[in-house]
Structure formats: structure tokens, C-alpha cells
Amino acid sequence: MAEITTLAAMKSFVLRRLGSPVIQVELSDDQLEQCIEDAVQYFQNHSTGEGNYRDYIGFTIQNGVSAYDMSDTQIDAVIDVALSFTTDGISTLFSHTHNLLWHDFVTLGGYPGGPGGGGNGAGMTLAGYEIATSYLDDVQDMFSRIYSAQYSSARKEMILTPTPDTTGIVLLEVFKKELAVNLYNNELVKRLAVAEANIQWGVNLRKYNMTLPGGGTMNWESIYQDGKDEKEKIEVRIVDEGEPPMPFIE
Question: How far apart are CA 21 and CA 11, in angstroms?
């Protein structure tokens, strides 16, 4: 079976698992898409590491603007915001080694005739460089403005405090939701989508029982219950098999 790369292919997969085309599955196209969307959304919200993941993005802030629309991103939460480059800060986003420590890093304690002048030896200065590196957060706090970010997943909006008084770039540490199309081949997403569709199918048939060709019957309660039982099992697996979630992820 080829990989599922589109929503149409995902819908075909779910219908086949429900018995189509041998059995007439009583679901509208919109209902089927909603079932798949619900399955993907649950996985995105509860499977830390696969459904959502930690990432870093550069983001432009504007002078006098505290609220930022993030609706065109897959961001699920903003963990931290660091000043990466502004007119009143220090640029660390694009430099491998901080400028304040460049001398020690290059000379490694010096050598005869070199910039360091044959000092204490490479080992000691390299150790000093490593120690100094550990204080970069303090250096950043000392020379840069510190912002805190509040993110509303419902409004897809980030609020920075205090309101920026300059235009520049910040580095956001965020949690992003994985794209739906990248989750269609996940075993648990597929099984949850089928379970959601089974539940919806049972709801559609609950006003009556159907008699199939040959005298068999289709009872809506058994269809509904099968889907409900499967959904509960899969949801538990999704939570248990994911990485420990961040405490603020919904």
C-alpha cells in the first residue's frame, strides 16, 4: 500500500477500513473530513515529540506593538523569547562564538609570538573559555531587554511584555504542531480516524436498524460502541507513547 500523502487518500483509507465498497458507509464527505481532522488534532495536542515538537524561529518585533497575530503559523505555544538582534542588544543568533570571548577562543591560551603571547597553555584557557561561555545568559540579561511572552492558542496571538520600544528580531522558543499531511501515515492517527468515523456512522444510523442483502442486520449501537471502544484505547496509547508533555500544553 502506497503512503498516504493527501486528504483524499486518507478518506479512501478510512472508508476501506469501514468496509467500503462492499458495505455502503453512511457518511457524508464533510463528516468524513471532520473525523480525520478530529483525529489529527487530538494527536497534535497529546503526542509530544511527534504531534507537536520544540522549535526555534526568528521573529520581527515592532516598536510600540505588543500583540502579534500568529494565525499563519503552526505554533501551539511560546515557551521563551530571547533578544537575538536589536539596536540595544547583542547579536548571538548568527555568531557561533560570542564576540566577547573571541580572543580566548582563537588563541587558546596563546603561543610564542602569537596574539596570546605564550601564556598559560591551551588547556587552561580553553577551560576558562568554557566557564565564560556558561555566563552568556547573564551577559545577555545585562545588555539586552528581557521580554516575556503570553500566547493564546485560541486567538493565535502572542503578547509581549513590556511593549517593545524598538524594531528588531527576537528568537522564539516554541512548540509547533506537525502538519496534518505528515501524520496521515502514523498508525495511531489512522486507527483513531477510523474509530471517529465508526462513531459518526453509528450516530447517523441510530434512528433505525438496517437489513442487509441476504438477511443480515446492521445495528447502529454495535457500530457506535465499536468505534467508541477503539477510540478510548487509541487515545490512551497516544498519550502514553508520547514524550512527557510540557505543563502548559493543552
Answer: 13
- Angle (nearest 5°) at CA 219 between 215 and 222: 135
Q: What is the pTM for the complete model shown?
A: 0.68
Q: What angle do CA 192, 196, 202 make, to 5 degrees?
A: 145
Residue for cell digits 438477511? 215
Question: What is the rounded average pLDDT of the residues 143-156?
Answer: 80
CA contacts within 13 A on the Cβ side of 231 = 20
Neighbours of 154 (CB within 10 A): 6
Average pLDDT, stretch 9-31?
A: 95
- Range picked from 57-61, 110-114, 186-190 for highest mean pLDDT: 186-190
Q: Which residues fall within 8 angstroms of residue 7, CB to CB, at 6 or more apart? A: 33, 36, 180, 181, 184
